[in-house]
Amino acid sequence: MRLKLIPDDTTFDFMGWRKLAVGLSAALIVASLAVTALVGLNFGIDFRGGIMIEARTEGPADIGAIRSAAGGLGLGDVAVQEFGAPEDVLIRIEAQDGEGDAQMQVVGQVEAALTEAIGGIEFRRVEVVGPKVSGELVQQGALAVGLAVVFMLIYIWLRFEWQFALGAVLALVHDVILTIGVFSATSLEFNLSIIAALLTIVGYSLNDTVIVFDRIRENLRKFKQMPLSEVLNLSINETLSRTLMTSGTTLVALIALWALGGEVIRGFTLAMIWGIVVGTYSSIFIASVLVLRMGVKRDWSKPDKAGPSGTNFSGAQV
Amino acid sequence: MLHYPAWKTALVLLICAAGVLFAAPNAFYSTVERANDGRAAIEAGRITPEAEADAASWPSYLPSSLVNLGLDLRGGAHLLVEVAVADVHAERLDALWPEARRALRDLRDQVGPFRRIGREGAQTLSIRLEQPGGEQIAAEALRDLAQPVSAGLLGAGGPDISVDVDGQTLTVSLTEGAIAAMDDRTMAQSLEIVRRRIDETGTREPTIQRQGADRILVQVPGIGSAEELLAIIGKTAKLTFHMVDSVTDAEGQAGPNQIKLPDADDPTRFYLLERQALITGDRLTDAQPGFDSRTSQPVVNFRFDAAGARRFGEVTAANVGRPFAIVLDDEVITAPNIREPITGGSGQISGSFTVETAANLSILLRAGALPAEITVLEQRTVGPDLGADSIAAGEIAVVVAFAAVLIVMLACYGMFGLYANIALIINVALLLAILSVIGATLTLPGIAGIVLTIGMAVDANVLIFERIREELRAGKPPARAIETGYERAFTAIVDANVTTFIAAVLLFAIGSGPVKGFSVTLGVGIVTSVFSAIMVTRLMVAVWFARARPKTLTV
Q: How many CB atoms lie within 10 A of CB A115?
């Protein structure tokens, strides 16, 4: 009578698939890095500076007319694209020389030119980011992701052994690289909210990984003689239904947001959906494989008599 | 663990009830907002029947805090501006030069002739002695000009200038303490003036904050374009009155005690003015837009304070027949002839104003001049329609996400799923309650944060339920299985949520604007979800178990 995503006692041999998983991940990482290096990211104005105008026209927008009206002002690179609906357009203009005042004048010019050329155009959103701020936003974004990874490394290190910390963090880096790769390959706009999405992915992926690790730690103490790869397999299988269940509910919620939440946050939710898929995959396949590769010290110095190992908060044994 | 002490039960129920109570105003957003506006109006002394009716539309014994909607949801303008604090340093040094000149002239027989080198507006004041020998005496004299830096409550913080001697060149620069104190003062004044100007426009709930060393963040809901906002806050609005020496063109050269300034309307027309201002805008007590009685053109009427009126009267009496210039931010707005002495202390500025620019200028003059120029670094404007669309889309998404998660949980875990769902609803109520009470701002990414919280809030329950299932499969009796399930799942829940919380804290510390909004909902959501999952479902399970005493258990 219960809906079950997977049967109760699974015995998938995840470690047996590790060559395939590692190969796949390695290939994807190389591809991601290559495409990011070659194609680059489609940075939004948050990071590149410039002007973005979201406008709505009466009836389907005439992109060509808008492009020629805005492009005729000699402002450099002007990109016009449909934004979610036929009557909505997004106009992006490259950063002008000088700080915001110069950019603001350009906004006035463009709005005037468009109002003249396209009757009944309505400006729904205008964003201007000067070069000074955009530079800082890049730094802050990179700093935020970097610091998050370091802090989480430290936290896991305190709670587990270093092999786990390193495994978890490498899995995180894997997730971040693959997400950036997807943004590069699809030319989706990479802006400040994508940094927020990346950080959330980092947190989420680690969440998943930690739960698997928590079980591995428990099983390592319970089955002292079992080979490490079997312990890993057992632990992943035991937590599998939880992993899929949580990822499933989160995905359901995110897909609702992606489909219904409007165009402004579509990129953000897409990053999150992809990140959760990748994060779930990496906590099952990558993090544990890395632990297996590095090995774990198993001669616990203290006998496990202090109740269930799961409540052992002083578990840092390096 | 299945025996829940009464005090704990009471505490959990109390928190849940408080959560629902404090979240409730958000369900009646527009009503409560109207009531709050009405109350604010009454408090401010504007007692009207409408305000009283509005105030009465929401019972006063109920909480009335609402989640603030961010600019991306309700529309408005966001401006990040930079104050040119360095200009004020240069002004201080330029003002020091006449004093320095006087001091050195008094010692001419010891230091010999000297002159200022380097340009005006530099961050140091350099003086070159034409003959060697007097450097130390001159440096000493310059050091005597120093004033103590007022370092707040901690008392005097040393001299405000330092003097370096390099050969025959003396360099006067501001000390670090002086710069810090000066910048603080400049920023405080700028904030105050920006606030006054925006208040004059009557906009509701503007946010005006200092950010970092030299920036101000201005957020004004409801303003349709940032240009409108910038017209109010972007102008320095430094008003001065100067005697006009002559009118010239771009070629004209200013004499030693003259400044050359352009006409505000005709870029080919320039004026040579006396450098020393007759009177400045700080002496104004009022400025109002109006119309010229003869031409019906929009004008700005102003009034000086007593000292200003006296000075203005003396100057105009001494210069009847000559033109004087009214200068705003280094542009000559108008340069009329003085027809008769103006002794009443009030006057009129007529330029080529529209009704709107006259109104804006009066606001600027009333609020006072900014101590330094400001530059826009970042601007974001969202129209109210887009904001409304985003709210609508966000609401639908939240409802659908919520419903989907509830159904999945019920299908997978039956009665336990129902408990988890109740906890989930309480979780969202708690989240909204906390966001309302702390006055957090809900942005579009913030809504995404709530949706994500909904998705992840079930995680703790899933962990517990899966663990209970395992324990049952291992043959444990129901009570023992539930107990162990909660116990064993606890570390995993803590570890998992701490990591996400780290991400939320970092986002809050480093992020700005909408990203910050997201981090707040995410962070608060983690706390409430752990509470609701661990305490609330556990209470429900405990109560159910105590009554039903089931022999077997299916989760």
A: 15
Phi, psi of B82 (to 5 degrees): -115, 135
Cβ-based neighbours of A1, under 8 Å, separated by 6 or more: B414
**CB-facing half-sphere around the CA of B246: CA atoms within 13 A:** 9
B502 touches chain A (CB under 8 A): yes
Q: Which residue of chain B has the CA closest to A208?
A: B496
Mean pLDDT value across residues B188-206: 85
Per-residue tokens: B412:
């997978």
Contact B455 A253 (CB under 8 A): yes
For residues B469 and B472, what is the distance between their CA atoms, to the nearest angstrom?
A: 5
* Dist CA B408 CA B372 (whole Å): 60
Please identify among residues 274-303 of chain A the ones whose CB lies closer than 8 Å to any CB of chain B.
Answer: none
Is the pLDDT assigned to residue A241 strictly greater than 90? no
Phi then psi for A191, rounded to 5 degrees?
A: -130, -170
Contact status, residue A261 vs residue B448, Cβ threshold 8 Å: yes
The pLDDT assigned to B154 comes to 53
Residues in A 2-61 with any Cβ partner in B closer than 8 A? 2-5, 8-9, 54, 56
List Cβ neighbours of A311 (8 Å cut-off, separation of 6 or more).
B487, B488, B490, B491
- The pTM for the full model equals 0.77
Question: Dihedral of the CA atoms A205, A206, A209, A210 (nearest 10)?
Answer: -150
CA torsion through residues A93, A94, A96, A100, sign: positive
- Secondary element (H or E) of residue B279: strand B279-280
Average pLDDT of the residues in A284-311: 68
- CA-nearest of A41, A135, A150, A55 to A93 is A55
Pairing of strands B346-349, B298-304: antiparallel
Residue B156: per-residue pLDDT? 56
If pLDDT is split at 50, 70 and 90, which confidence band does A311 have? Answer: very low
At residue B375, the 3 state secondary structure works out as strand
In the prediction, which pLDDT does B17 show? 93
Beta-carbon contacts of B251 under 8 Å, excluding residues fewer than 6 positions away, are: none
Residues of A in contact with B394 (CB under 8 A): 261-262
Question: How does DSSP assign B297-352, residue by residue?
Answer: -EEEEEEE-HHHHHHHHHHHHHTTTSBEEEEETTEEEE--B--S---SSEEEE-SS
The answer on pLDDT for A23 being more than 90 is: yes
A36-52 exposure pattern, b = at least 16 Cβ within 10 A, e = fewer: beeeebbbbbbbbbbbb
Residues of B (372-431) whose Cβ lies below 8 Å from A: 375-383, 385-386, 389-390, 393-394, 396-398, 400-402, 404-405, 408-409, 411-414
Report how far apart the first and last C-alpha atoms of chain B are (Å, whole number). 18
Q: What values do phi and psi take at B319, rounded to 5? A: -125, 30
The number of residues making up chain B comes to: 555
Measured at the CA of B81, the angle between CA B79 and CA B87, to 5 degrees, comes to 160
Distance from CA of A71 to the nearest CA of B (A): 22
Are B145 and B160 a contacting pair, CB within 8 Å? Answer: no
Residues 198-227 of A with CB under 8 A from B: 199-200, 202-204, 206-208, 210-211, 214-215, 218
Inform me whether the C-beta atom of residue A241 falls under 8 Å from chain B C-beta atoms. yes
Looking only at the bridges linking them, the beta strands covering A50-56 and B324-328 are unpaired
* Helix or strand run (H / E) with residue B247: strand B239-248
- Answer whether B378 sits within 8 Å of A207, measured CB to CB: no
Task: Look over chain B and give the mean of its residue pLDDT values, rounded to a whole number.
Answer: 86
Helix (H, G, I), strand (E, B) or coil at B261: strand
Strands B346-349, B374-382: parallel, antiparallel or unpaired by DSSP?
Answer: unpaired
Mean pLDDT of B110-126: 85
**Around A173, how many Cα atoms within 13 Å sit in the side-chain half-sphere?**
16
